[in-house]
Amino acid sequence: LAVFRHGEAPVREFYSVKRLVLIENKANYYSRIKEKRPDEAIVFAGGHFSPVRKQLYECMREGFHGEIYLSSDIDLGGFLMFARLKEEVFPNLKPYHMSLDIYEKYLKYARSVDEAYLDKIEKARDREDLAIFHDVMDAILKHKKALEQEVMIIK
Q1: What is the full DSSP assignment across 50-74?
Q2: Which of these, 71, 76, 122, 149, has the minimum number of CB atoms within 10 Å of its CB?
Q3: CB 129, CB 82: distance < 8 Å
């Protein structure tokens, strides 16, 4: 289990951490654990979660009273992953490095998207559970580009 590798806190100390950061991308996970603070646990999330991973997250949630974050791509898939994780498992979930500031910082490395993708963003823009990302969605619509999180460690 990735959460307890690479010098992470042993299981009995997990609940003493104040911050849990779920990271969708494996390269970003490996980069981020090098900068881990003593009061946080870093977990490789690996994309949209399966029923088994959901059970793991639910076990992690029980008794954990710290802040919980998700780092994912700044694109529709990342937004939907965040919304599902927030609705089904972690109601207090916050985005990590998924803000408009981060998008603008790395915009020159973003990938171009087609009109069909922009239509999907436009429809998602109306979802209340994605309101936290409306400013980023507006930027994606404006620039016609989405951002993979890998660029944050490569560039």
Answers
A1: PHHHHHHHHHHHTT--SEEEEE--B
A2: 122
A3: no
